[in-house]
Write a structure and sequence with these properties.
mainly beta, Jelly Rolls, eight-stranded antiparallel sheet, 8 strands
Length: 102
């Protein structure tokens, strides 16, 4: 999928000593997404807005709020994260992703 008529924020979002990076994409209708890349590692993120995480390449194991076990997500899959929560993930090799904020 291509994005048309968007604004890209040049400054990168950098987390975990550079192991996770993304760029913010802003749409004319107010929608916001980030396109990012994660290197191997274990991460925990907190959310303010609800998110939909789409895996474009690679895979990750994710423990969403209220869950006690990790679920594997691979390229072509996605998952939702509720607002005002935190979630954990394990990346074995890498993940290329698109995160859509609701």
């Amino acid at each position: 999928m291509d994005f048309k008529n968007v604004t890209v924020v040049k400054k990168a979002n950098v987390y975990f000593d550079g192991k996770v990076t993304s760029r913010t994409v802003l749409f004319e209708n107010g929608e916001r997404k980030t396109l990012g890349f994660m290197m191997a590692g274990e991460y925990e993120f907190s959310t303010a807005a609800s998110e939909n995480m789409e895996i474009l390449g690679g895979d990750m194991s994710v423990m969403l709020p209220g869950e006690t076990e990790y679920t594997l997500y691979t390229a072509g899959q996605n998952y939702d994260v509720p607002a005002d929560s935190s979630f954990k993930m394990i990346v074995e090799k890498y993940v290329d992703y698109c995160c859509s904020y609701k």
